[in-house]
Specification:
Strand content of chain A: 5-15%
Strand content of chain B: 15-25%
Number of strands of chain A: 12
Distance between the termini of chain A: 77 Å
Structural class of chain A: alpha/beta
Number of strands of chain B: 12
CATH superfamily of the largest domain in chain B: NagB/RpiA/CoA transferase-like
CATH topology of the largest domain in chain B: Rossmann fold
Largest sheet of chain A: 6 strands, parallel
Order of helices and strands of chain B: HHEHEEHEEEEEHEEEE
CATH architecture of the largest domain in chain B: 3-Layer(aba) Sandwich
Strand order of the largest sheet of chain B: 1-12-7-4-2-3
CATH architecture of the largest domain in chain A: 3-Layer(aba) Sandwich
CATH class of the largest domain in chain A: Alpha Beta
Number of domains of chain A: 3
Number of helices of chain A: 22
Helix content of chain B: 10-25%
Oligomer: heterodimer
Largest sheet of chain B: 6 strands, parallel
Number of helices of chain B: 5
């Protein structure tokens, strides 16, 4: 049996195929679907247990939602506050309007440091700005230190989940990747042994590479502190051993006060990994002499976020704390896994975040990658109404499409325009109904069903039958029924 | 540098323009001072801030949670603490230990090779087989130990590089809920590490593996300093 990892997927919304097309290859890959379903079943069961034991879960959600809403209402003020406090504590704050500027700032900093190697903590934001390829192109060797990210980096794979990025890779595939890339021929597929191999491989890097790049879970405006939530200790290594630390954070990551963590930390780990608390959370403020990096930079990234903020119904997208509970709850994600979304942010949150970050110029198929069942909203710890945003985005996609010149005679839009005319007046509707009944009689078989239609109608009858129109409409029946009763 | 200054203004302008429709009461005018913020201090909802458990049940919960994370928990009276520490060290089978420089001298059990951290080099800490520290707080609900990295808790890498961590937690430091920890902070700490069990990963098929990069062994002595 072959354990080869499927060929490389590129997670760039600009070039990714539309979701239905990309989903097909996932649906035809039973190994992938088995890996994804297994991982999700485990997380879901754990989450249900630890959320179930919180008698105040809904109150915590409400509080978390209120804190995040308040952040968006005062975002500029909190960012300036964060900048002032972080700077006062010895950090340096940089502002990047887009991905290219963020990459340039980070490359310049690495250049000043004369860094040829960096250790990295898992950060989805760096994947969003395609940082690693830019660093490699500039001759900087990047060492991902999160176990899942290491698996992906060595296996030349892309992340398929926000919290557990390698959940689509199973243990024998990990064994194959590690054996090949670390030169360990006798490695078994026991997760314990695989984890030990990663520990040994990375230990030397932590102790010798003086520059680290991290993301951030929360920035605290009140204190200028940064918080990183993790499990393995690779985060603590990167945050304390190097001489220089560069933290990349989306502008929406800020929280007003230190005390807000009393809510956020209670909901985050439970929602993300189904743990009461993740093994390690680190909080630091600027630079502390004698403890940790002595040069500290924060890069605040906009990259489309302020434009999301400008749309009242869609603004709630920015409340997200990247717990990925919506991915785990989503019946679509469960079937397709993450790569089909063509973005580093997959699942329901990705379906609303990605097209918006792309200014609605790419990834327009993603708002349709949902059955609108609402499971994502129900589990969201900050109460993002994802179905509402999905519908809003679908409306925008349709609006964009129907205004394209080539779409004027598109059968769907033509049909919809005719329907809009017909439904506008009762007599037009009744006339159309009578005409339709006559027209469809040609295709209706003796059993009362239409088995095949020509033209655009075939799209329906290719996969199912259509019931023929009855001889009398409800309106007609109602009218005659009244008379007969008298 | 000037490019990022320009971007700073551009981003802040965009944010201001983007939030133009928001209610004025939620906006902070002028220099942002936290006290003027629209009451994020009491977010709506009535989540539990204070636990209702008896002390004994709360301590039992803390112990139970730690054990679920595969941490080893022992208890000691304040008087017996040095002996309890010595017993843990002896049982570990290790000899080279690191300790923060504020650790009480009577905790440094004789017969072991102690490295006291007053600016130790990274490899010296790396070579220690274990480390002994105090803590700032314990949160029973999630079995979390919080370090504020004071002189008895050590700087951050001290509890990171050695593979074995013995943490001395006084019963009076244990609270039931996470919000109670925040109440104990007179002001926000500049550095804090929240530790919930030994380092772990579940990245391979969601199988929890204890010990990746942080200490693989966490031992806790709960000191019964309450009557």
């Amino acid at each position: 049996m072959s354990h080869a990892v499927p060929s490389r997927v590129v997670l760039d919304p600009r070039s990714a195929p539309p979701f239905p097309q990309a989903a097909l290859s996932a649906l035809r890959n039973p190994q992938l679907r088995k890996n994804v379903a297994h991982a999700i079943d485990v997380i879901q069961a754990k989450r249900a247990k630890v959320v179930g034991e919180k008698t105040d879960w809904q109150a915590l959600r409400a509080a978390a939602s209120a804190i995040r809403t308040n952040v968006l209402e005062n975002l500029g003020a909190y960012l300036e506050e964060f900048e002032a406090r972080c700077t006062a504590a010895g950090g340096t704050v940089h502002w990047a309007a887009d991905a290219a500027e963020a990459r340039r700032i980070i490359l310049d900093l690495l250049c000043q440091e004369k860094a040829s190697e960096v250790v990295k903590i898992k950060t989805m934001t760096s994947a969003e700005i395609q940082l690693n390829p830019a660093l490699e192109a500039a001759g900087v060797s990047v060492f991902e230190t999160d176990l899942a990210e290491l698996i992906l980096q060595l296996g030349e794979e892309e992340p398929s989940h926000i919290v557990v990025p390698a959940l689509h890779v199973n243990r024998s595939q990990v064994r194959e990747i590690f054996a090949r890339r670390m030169g360990l021929k006798n490695l078994s597929d026991d997760p314990k042994e695989l984890t030990n191999a990663a520990r040994t491989y990375l230990r030397g890097k932590f102790l010798s590479i003086p520059t680290a790049i991290s993301g951030s879970n929360f920035l605290i405006a009140e204190t200028g502190s940064v918080a990183v939530v993790e499990s393995e200790g690779n985060g603590r290594m990167c945050l304390t051993l190097p001489r220089t630390l560069i933290t990349l954070a989306g502008i929406e990551k800020v929280l007003p006060r230190f005390q807000d963590l009393e809510v956020m930390l209670q909901v985050l780990a439970r929602s993300a990994t189904g743990e009461r608390m993740n093994p390690y959370t680190s909080l630091w403020t600027g630079v502390t002499p004698g403890d940790g990096p002595q040069r500290f930079h924060v890069v605040l990234l906009d990259n489309g976020r302020s434009s999301i903020l400008s749309r009242p119904k869609q603004r709630q997208t920015l409340k997200c704390i990247r717990c990925a509970a919506c991915l785990n709850a989503c019946p679509v994600y469960r079937q397709t896994g993450g790569h089909a979304y063509g973005s580093v942010y997959p699942g329901p949150i990705g379906a609303i975040l990605t097209p918006q970050l792309m200014h609605m110029e790419h990834a327009q198929s993603l708002p349709y990658a949902s059955s609108l069942c609402g499971a994502c909203y129900e589990v969201c710890p900050v109460k993002i109404n994802i179905p509402e945003v999905l519908l809003e985005l679908r409306a925008q996609v349709v609006n964009q499409e129907r205004q394209q010149a080539g779409r004027f005679f598109d059968p769907m839009y033509l049909g919809l325009r005719i329907a809009s005319l017909l439904f506008a007046r009762a007599w037009r509707f009744h006339a159309a109904h009578r005409l339709g009944r006559i027209g469809l009689r040609l295709f209706t078989r003796k059993d009362g069903w239409i088995h095949s239609l020509p033209g655009i109608g075939a799209k329906w009858t290719q996969t199912r039958d259509l019931r023929g129109l009855p001889g009398q409409s409800f309106h007609e029946w109602w009218a005659t029924r009244g008379k007969e009763a008298k | 540098m000037s490019a990022t200054v320009a971007s700073r203004q551009r981003i802040l302008d965009r944010i201001l323009a983007a939030s133009g429709d928001l209610p004025a009461r939620n906006r902070i005018a002028g220099n942002p001072i936290m006290e003027e913020a629209p009451d994020p201090a009491s977010p709506p909802g009535s989540y539990i801030r204070h636990g209702a458990m008896h002390r004994e049940a709360c301590l039992k919960l803390m112990t139970g949670r730690l054990q679920e994370y595969d941490a080893e928990v022992a208890e000691s009276s304040p008087e017996q603490l040095p002996a309890a520490i010595a017993a843990q060290l002896a049982a570990s089978g290790k000899h080279r230990f690191a300790a923060p420089d504020g650790l009480p001298a009577q905790w440094l059990a004789p017969g072991f090779d102690w490295k006291i951290d007053s600016g130790l080099a990274m490899d010296e800490i790396e070579q220690a087989e274990g480390v002994v520290t105090a803590a700032f707080c314990g949160v029973a609900d999630s079995g979390t130990i919080v370090l504020h990295h004071s002189a008895t808790e050590g700087r951050r890498l001290l509890t990171l590089l050695p593979d074995w961590h013995l943490c001395i937690l006084r019963a009076s430091q244990v609270v039931e809920t996470l919000p109670e920890y925040f109440d104990r902070c007179q002001e926000p700490p500049a550095r804090a590490t929240f530790i919930s069990g030994p380092s772990a990963t579940a990245d391979i098929e969601m199988t929890r593996i204890k010990g990746v990069h942080g200490p693989r062994f966490l031992h806790v002595i709960l000191v019964r300093d309450e009557s």
